Amino acid sequence: MSAEATATRWWAVAAAFGGGVAIALNVGKVPVALPTLRPELGLSLVQAGWVSSALTTMALLMAALVGMAVGRVGAWRMVMAGLVCCALGALLPLLLPPGFPGLLLGRLVEGLGFMCTAVATPALVTAATAPQDRRFALGLWSAYMPAGAGMAMLASPLVLPWMGWQGLWVLSVAGLLAAAAALWRFRAVYGPKPGVLASPPTAPAVPAVPSVAPAGTFWQTGFAALRQPLPWLLALAFGVWAIQHFALIVWMPTYLREVRGLGAGPTAVLTSVMLLACVPGNLMGGSLLQRGWSRSRLIMLGQAGAGLGALLYVNGALPDGLRYAAAVWVSFIGGVIPAAVMASSTVLARSPQQIGTLQGLFMQGAQLGQFVGTPSIAAVVAASGQWRDSWWVTLPSAALGILLGWLVSRWEPAGQPSSPTPAAP
């Protein structure tokens, strides 16, 4: 195989990453727009909660099933359908009569598109990268969520006063359509023809995987991936990190506005900086994987660092600057965990069709962490009346994450191969 054929096509990787950022904008736009949405549309607290959690609920219930469907539909087709579905969901509240039903319906449609894009894109990244770059590229992909959500928070102080919540929705549609156009431009890179995912370059003798797997086999292929214990341990490790990250995201804006009295603009900027700090952590995780660090080592490092940082940012005896720095540190060091988990799909998959299945499982683990973390943190804080007591949730989560990292070390493959040797279809 020629050097050109095995070279990483970084523009195609960037296009795939752009699709992830576009769907993450849809995740980040709702929390920052809710203070504007509620009085304008007359939403109750319960209705606002449904709008905020609709996407997470969809992902929690369906992520693994959508991941298995990637092998049936094809990764490129699934991603394109997801981006279009997200754009349609964002348009619905603008086209339907203003109110809760149209907003909720739009969020549910966005949730479906989010899942389709998030679980299928790593297969496109795999197809566009050479073996020596694959770990770093997948670490880069893991940064899509904090990058997109952070950008939404940064844009909100500028867009909301000028264009209202509708402006954020229009900008999200523009981002989704631009991402779809970029993926269309590089469709040939992701396979021999649109909708076909080529086998990773590490197995040149294996023929291309058809975009549509036989109906009787793709479920078997998906369940075969889930019979391994290691993916479940990684998904749980991702979930307990999500609990800690969610606690931080909830704590910071509440603390800045209610305790320190900052306005909406400074609160959004400081919170977005904290979120964006996860991005260099993701990149560091991908780089360390590339240098031969084990996934278990990265998970234990991230969990231990996040747990210790949480003890600092909730400590009211410390200066505000140090507490904020500790919160940024938690986001940064914890960023190595998604990089370690999401990059493992190409190692654990026995065939390219299984990549989507594993990504769906990992997403389900992260969403489960948020789902469990929400009432847990609320219950602890409500009982004491102090946000600092959230450490009763975050510290045990970090300890469990370290244990899971140790268990991962018992199961992960020796030598940390950069990619699987897929079986012929």
CATH homologous superfamily name of the largest domain? MFS general substrate transporter like domains
**Hey, roughly how much beta strand do the residues contain?**
under 5%
**What's the β-strand tally?**
0
Note the run of SSEs as H and E. Answer: HHHHHHHHHHHHHHHHH
The radius of gyration is 21 Å
Helix proportion: over 70%
| Ends distance | 21 Å
Assign the CATH architecture of the largest domain. Up-down Bundle
List the domain count as a whole number.
2
Task: Give the class-level CATH name of the largest domain.
Answer: Mainly Alpha
The gross shape turns out to be globular
Average pLDDT reading: 81
Quaternary class: single chain
Individual helix count: 17
What is CATH's topology name of the largest domain? Answer: Growth Hormone, Chain: A
Global structural class: mainly alpha
Query: What profile does the largest beta sheet have?
Result: none
Q: pLDDT below 50 for ≥5 consecutive residues: which ranges?
A: 1-5, 192-216, 415-425
